[in-house]
Design a protein that fits this description.
Oligomer: single chain
CATH topology of the largest domain: Thrombin, subunit H
Structural class: mainly beta
CATH superfamily of the largest domain: Trypsin-like serine proteases
Number of domains: 3
Helix content: 10-25%
Distance between the termini: 58 Å
CATH class of the largest domain: Mainly Beta
Strand content: 25-35%
Largest sheet: 8 strands, mixed
Length: about 700
């Protein structure tokens, strides 16, 4: 019987997609593509870029049900654009798509455009709402809507995308990864649209950074994504949506006229700047994101979460399905049973709720199952400091009207369990904590160093006239306290130069070699190396301390340009390797071909945590930073980047600061860089951090250190 049902289910799915009818109403070879680009300054078009197709891949069939293809008729030609369904009668797109158009065909529920699929809904319209302030030369106010003559039928293949709330206007989304999708060209060599709907993930960058690449053409009403890795929109994608966490935040507008594969940012119309316009000219719901998301509604519970796989029935038995009633409708959230009377969930789910039906012991939460227990509650505890704008303190509990009785004796009977610690696990945890405490208790204050007198190397290149007048957000340098001895390769170096001491970072690359930067050791006559440390102001039991005056400084070091900024300290005795002190790997010779752009690496150190600080961090801190391409870095660093450098983005005010020179940049347990310099705008200016690229110095490492190079 199960086999028969499976066959019937597969047949039902096949019914929706089989025998798609070829679409002969459009000659796709004659469909043109809007390709909005700004001019390129003289000489920039001579740059050579990697020949790769525009990033992205085929979307799952109808996996982006808000997506609209738009065929616009202008004069005697047809043009392909993208769009999104923002209400049952409104398609959002760009003004450039509709300006001068006489008619638009809208195709919803499509995966392929060259066939008429059973899932598709097609509409013709000549009723357009084009922003009255649209300036085609500057792509300002590049937003428009198509009004459909009849409402679309919402289902699993066609649904509405949420638009921002008014409180979202404070967010710039920089650093977030959003989805771009469309049927546009997949490379500069193509002349016809993609056969299938494609999507890609692109990182939102700040307008300040984007403005450097886009030659001063970026306004506050724009939002940009990075082109790193050859990803971005291409001809035919104008008007397509940029979506972050099921909410549309942008409409594809333009890029620079270097082609789709030039790794330049893509520019979008920023939707948070047009909420009043949307409210006036469309029926889009500008309110709580949940109320706009048909994804969350019970009618769509057959849909899967993104990625993952179905679990075996009731194997996650503490899971709770929550059907939440709000004035605007019914919503689905998840929760976890944490005691016989309480279910843990998010404050976002319960805000403005009137009641919640809790379904425990469920596998298919929208079906009646014999294993389920269903309870309705109107009593909630929402965190007192929950902030719906910043999404901080997003936690809440539901008080059940009666206690459930899950335990090991009946867990198979009612398929419930508590997410709790058993007694044995608690005992083991206490013992583990005691063992950890043994290593760190009674740390001795370090009186050998007056930390208030420690200076910090702060390598910076000059700033062009006027750039220092820019105002940046006042935030601490990103990063947080690392777990105790979680980076056992990390070395603190106190360098004595003249009558002063300077703090640098370093890394243990062999039992007798600590790698750092040349700037740290040039002019020094002694260095104290501290390994196994978390705090530097105390002598911890895990620490090993060494003094050395034997330095290997690269003979080609150029301090004015920070070229060949690499050096090593030779220890007089081998370190003792253990859980607190260990060696970090260096690149292999075969790693020379990798530039690591787009990878996320770890930077760590005891340097200053803000421009206002004057003493080192009390504890070892780390941050995750994205490696960026040298060509992008060179634009920000005013032409000072060489092939021997590697850069990380400063987006979100993260990066190395004074006192971090010489510290390691580590990707997947392999050191790929040594902190070198940045621009002289302070650590919080969101400028890239520049490192010495280790793959260029493997011969040097092999000659001057005992590091193992495989």
């Amino acid at each position: 019987m199960k086999l028969i049902l499976t066959v019937l289910a597969l047949a039902a799915v096949a019914y929706a997609f089989e025998d798609a009818i070829p679409d002969t109403s459009v000659d796709w070879s004659q469909v043109k593509h809007l390709n909005p680009r700004i001019p390129v300054p003289f000489g920039l078009d001579k740059l050579i870029f990697k020949e790769r197709i525009v990033g992205g891949w085929e979307s799952e069939q109808n996996g982006l049900p808000y997506m609209a293809a738009i065929i616009v008729t202008k004069g005697t030609g047809n043009y392909l654009c993208g769009g999104s369904l923002v209400s049952q009668v409104d398609i959002l797109t760009s003004a450039q798509c509709l300006l001068g158009a006489s008619q638009a065909q809208v195709i919803l529920g499509a995966h392929r455009l060259d066939v008429i699929e059973a899932t598709q809904q097609r509409f013709y319209s000549s009723q357009f709402e084009i922003h009255h302030g649209y300036e085609p030369d500057l792509f300002i106010n590049d937003i428009a809507a198509i009004k459909l003559q009849a409402p679309v039928q919402l289902n699993d293949f066609v649904s509405i995308v949420a638009v921002p709330r008014f409180e979202d206007a404070v967010h710039n989304f920089a650093g977030e990864v959003a989805v771009v999708s469309g049927w546009g060209l997949t490379s500069d060599a193509e002349v016809t649209p993609s056969e299938v709907l494609k999507k890609l993930f692109a990182e939102v960058i700040t307008n300040f950074v984007c403005n450097f690449s886009l030659l001063g053409n970026i306004q506050a009403t724009h939002i940009c994504t990075s082109g790193e890795g050859n990803v971005g929109a291409c001809a035919g994608d104008a008007g397509a949506p940029l979506v972050f966490e099921y909410m549309q935040i942008g409409v594809v507008s333009f890029s620079v006229d270097l082609g789709c594969e030039a790794q330049w940012p893509t520019v979008y119309t920023r939707l948070t700047s047009y909420l009043d316009w949307l409210e006036t000219h469309t029926e889009a719901h500008i309110g709580n994101v949940l109320s706009s998301l048909t994804f969350f509604k019970p009618t769509h519970l057959e849909s899967k979460i993104v990625g993952g796989e179905e679990v075996s029935a009731n194997s996650i038995s503490f899971m709770a399905g929550l059907f939440i009633t709000k004035p605007t409708g019914l919503y689905l959230c998840g929760g976890v049973l944490i005691s016989t009377k309480y279910v843990l969930t998010s404050a976002n789910c319960l805000e403005s709720s009137t009641s919640v039906e809790v379904r425990l012991g469920a596998h298919k939460v929208n079906k009646e199952e014999s294993t389920q227990i269903r309870l309705t509650s109107t009593k909630f505890n929402i965190h007192g400091d929950w902030n719906s704008t910043s999404l901080t303190n997003d936690i809440a509990t539901i008080v059940l009207p009666s206690a459930v009785t899950p335990n090991s004796s009946n867990v198979q009977e009612n398929h419930l369990s508590l997410a709790h610690l058993a007694n044995m696990k608690l005992i083991l945890t206490v013992l583990a904590l005691a063992a950890v405490a043994y290593a760190f208790e009674d740390a001795i204050p370090d009186t050998s160093v007056d930390w208030s007198q420690i200076k910090h190397l702060n390598p910076r290149i000059p700033v062009p006239f006027g750039l220092d007048k820019l105002i940046f957000k006042e935030r601490i340098v990103g990063g947080w306290e690392t777990e105790r001895n979680g980076l056992p390769y990390m070395a603190a170096i106190i360098v004595t130069k003249g009558t002063g001491n300077y703090l640098c970072g370093g890394s243990l690359i062999s039992q007798v070699d600590v790698l750092t930067s040349a700037q740290c050791l040039i002019g020094a006559f002694q260095a104290q190396v501290i390994l196994g440390a978390h705090r530097l102001d105390v002598i911890e039991a895990t620490q090993q301390r060494f003094y050395s005056s034997q330095f290997e400084i690269h003979h080609g070091y150029e301090p004015d340009l920070f070229i060949n900024d690499i050096a090593a300290i030779k220890l007089q005795a081998a370190v003792q390797l253990n859980d607190f002190v260990s060696i970090v790997a260096v690149p292999r010779f075969e790693d020379v071909v990798h530039n690591f752009a787009g990878e996320v690496a770890v930077v760590s150190g005891w340097g200053l945590t803000s421009d206002a600080e004057v003493t080192p961090s009390e504890v070892l801190k780390k941050l995750f930073a994205e490696v960026i391409d040298n060509i992008v870095c060179n634009i920000s660093l005013l032409g000072n980047i060489q092939a021997t450098h590697i850069c990380t983005s400063g987006e979100g005010s993260i990066g190395a600061c004074a006192g971090d020179a010489g510290a390691p940049l580590v990707f997947e347990y392999m050191q790929i860089g040594v902190v070198s310099f940045s621009v002289n705008l302070g650590c919080e200016a969101q400028w890239p951090t520049v490192y010495t690229r280790l793959t260029f110095y493997l011969d040097w490492l092999e000659t001057h250190t005992e590091a193992h190079i495989a």
